[in-house]
Amino acid sequence: MRVLMLSVLVATTTAACTWVPIEQSGKSVQVLPAGPVPAGCQQQGEVVVSVKSKVGFYNRNPLRVQEELETLARNEAPGANANAVQAQGQPADGSQRFNAFRCPPR
């Protein structure tokens, strides 16, 4: 019985600890703060990303979810010929929309 409970605890804990790695191409993509887009940046499109915000009855840490969404957006941006992303709003149910921009080098 103890082994079963420990197994369930370990499975639940590790399932809630997902981690999204930054890809090599996403490392050069910057996350722009909310507000006006820097001069010279051209919109290239939109990136929509999602992760699990809830595992079973467990709600994941919202900051961790937001961090993973930003990482996914950075990973997707080069596919839109973009080197910067800016969130359109707050995450909702593990999903978030980002505008993708091509900005001049700083």
From TrEMBL:
It holds the Pfam family DUF4156. Residues 77-106 are annotated as: Disordered. This is DUF4156 domain-containing protein. Residues 77-92 have a biased composition (Low complexity). InterPro entries: DUF4156. It comes from Xanthomonas pisi.
